[in-house]
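hey can u check if this looks right to u? its 287 residues, i copy pasted from the old doc so theres a chance i mangled smth
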Amino acid sequence: MGLCLFTANRLGELLLSELDKRNFYPDVVTYIRGFQRTSLAKDLGTFRKQFNMTFIAANSAFTCENLPDMSDRTIICVDWTKDFFKGADWDVVFAHPSLLPAYRGYSAITEQFVRGVAVSGATFYKQGDRIDAGDIVSSKQIDINYEDYPSDFLEKYASVCADFIVELNRKGLASYHAVPQDEASSFYLQRKRGKDSIIDFNRDAFSLYNHIRGYSRPFFGAFFMHNGQKVTVWRATTEKWQGDYGEAGQVLEVSDDGVEIACGSGSITLTEVEIDGKVYKGDQIPL
């Protein structure tokens, strides 16, 4: 008996670093470089020296010749294709970046930031008949502070996942009492697309700040158009919480901190943006 970790992308990179800190080196399965076409994709080959790694390029365990038999092992999936093991009679545990049954599906991190969620978490659940709906093995609360961005959450989440993986290996899956999810409290999310991230300055400053945070790195970024150019906003702060300070989208002031812009209510200061591939900060932002 043993444990095998399936992981990929930026989260996988953070997770393997956390496991390395804990001197725990499970077998790892990941995608080959370039297989996933996403901004989150990472080449985990840099961890070859520490971990025994298998690289695959198929969407199904049953079509990949290089995947070994896993029937005698516990499989833990962190940021891995959710229906990868569908129909497999194996012990599979998935990690999800929310306190299930809330925020099932894709884009859970972005959605929680956009909605201003302050109390999130990591949930580890057994594979079920529906995505993210299996019995919960364990969960842990992760707070989202007002100044946090998704990159901060991912670091906290990776640390929690690493702790659970070490514990799971030590205790064994049979030692956990899995609990069914409350279906009455559950809801699914749609995958976020580029147009979902468009910045509407007619919104209030607080909502707009959460919107910008939700799409920030490592995601594709919230944006607006200015003089025919796409302006991606990576960082911002709420300047004035509410009130009428000018026409929505109007530049109010340029300071060392950045560019203050009027919102439908209140104002927000853009502190880091990207235009034509170049990043600008503070008073260097050309708006």
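The chain has two domains: 3-189, 194-284.
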